[in-house]
Amino acid sequence: MSTPPSSPPADARSLAAALARAVSRGAAAWPGLEVAPATFQAHLEARVPGEGDRMAALEAMAIEDLYLACACVHGDRRAIAAFTERFVRVSVAAAVRSRRDGPAADDMVQLVLEKLLAPRGELPPRLAEFSGQGGLRAWVRVTVVRAGIDLERAQARRIVADTGEPAENLEELATTTDPELDYLKRHYREAFREAFAAALAELDPRSRNTLRQHLVERLSIDQIGALQGVHRATAARWIARSREELLTGTREQLRGRLHLSEGEYASIMRLIDSMLEVSVQRLLSG
């Protein structure tokens, strides 16, 4: 006569019931997000300490924040938008107010999102490390502080590069196989640098960050799309449009600085296109 399967211990049943209640609680807090109950339960259970009073640990966790983080990690666009507005922008705004000469808020927001949501090879985004022990806003604030420091260091490096010897700059190293372009680069270097920097400054923050992600950080279209919460086709359009806006802006800036013949003007356009990538790297690296 076979022995009937034994029931799980009472503690295990209680924990399972508590996990189910926590899943319902998270879903109720964020009704517009698409997270399968089993997905969040697995996400949650993996973050409950394996030793000690697991029930007490579960009850102390920031379930609503953890649910939002789980949705972001799994690519829910509405979750990423809510996370950006309610947690990242709020924390960045506070940091910017406390640092008068610090980096721009939009640049900090983008860098924080990259740090927390960008794919890391086989590893999940860093936001997956949020364990629910304490609130999400305090956890994000640590990354905001680090992002501000990173941007300030990058800004300092750019200042040093711009005031150093010309040969230390990327544009100087980017020789071409076209003697005409090399001639133009030598003779119009300063005008080009000024025009390019002015055109880059006129781009909106999203365009600047899209170019930085694509040309400096070498993120793929899929990675940029995931980071920005858009389809890869949209990310590709953003890259193309940002590049075109920068080329057009540089051209218009040069038109106002130089008096060129039609032939020289056409050659300058080739120079701008050939120097785009290294110039973006110089101004937006870090």
Automatic annotation (TrEMBL):
Segments forming domain RNA polymerase sigma factor 70 region 4 type? 194-246
Which terms under GO biological process does the entry name?
DNA-templated transcription initiation
Which InterPro entries does the annotation name?
A: RNA_pol_sigma-70_dom, RNA_pol_sigma70_MYXXA, RNA_pol_sigma70_r4_t2, RNA_pol_sigma_r2, RNA_pol_sigma_r3/r4-like, WH-like_DNA-bd_sf
What's an example of a GO molecular-function annotation for this chain?
DNA binding
Name by which UniProt lists this protein? Sigma-70 family RNA polymerase sigma factor
Q: Which organism is it from?
A: Nannocystis pusilla
Top-level taxonomy: Bacteria, Pseudomonadati, Myxococcota, Polyangia, Nannocystales
